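Shipment paperwork, digital attachment
Item: protein structure file
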Amino acid sequence: MTGTGTETGAGTGSVSGAGTGAAEPTGPRRPGRRRRVAGAVTGALAGGAVVALAAVVGLGGCSVGGASAHGKGGPAKLAVRSGYIPQPLLTDLAAAYVTVVNDGGTDAQLTAVTTPLAAHVTLHTTQGTTMRQVMELTVPAGGRLTLGTGGDHLMLEDLTRRPSVGETVPLTLHFAHATPATVTVTVPVRPTTYQPKD
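Attachment content:
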C-alpha cells in the first residue's frame, strides 16, 4: 500500500493521512516497566519452543534511525505489508510486529504508534540480550523495516483488555519524512506460539 487506498486481509491497512510530520512520541514509562516489558517478550516464547515472532513476509534486520533523513533523493513512499500480535500471556502488555516497505529515495522514521487496545505503545530494539526503548526506528530508502522477535518491535502497554485469537486490532503508525505521514493497519491476533512462514 502506497499513497492512498486500502488493502484487505490480515496485516494490511489503510492510509489515514498524507504529507510530512510525526505524532509526539510517548513519554518515559514508570520505573520497573522495562523489566516487565522484557518479561512480556520472553513470555511470548512460551510452549518450550523458540517462536519466530516476525512479520509474515519473513525475518529480516532493521535499523535504529537517527534524527535526520537521508537517501539518494526523492520522497519516502511507505506501505505496510504485513503484521500481527501474538496473544499476550499478561493482561496489560503485548508485543506487535509489522513490516514497513519504503519504495522511495529518502529514509523515513517511525516515531510513534497508537491503538485503541493500549494506553501507550513504545518502540524497542534488542541488541544481543539487551532490550532498550528508542524514540524512533528508521525505514531505509529502498528497503524495509521488519519488526520481529530478537530485534526491533512494538510494545503495547496498559492494555484496555486482553485480545482473543482471531480478532483484529488497528494500529496507526506515525512517520517523519514520509508520505503518507500516518498509516493505519489492521493486524490479526495470533496464538502465542504462532510462527509465520517465510
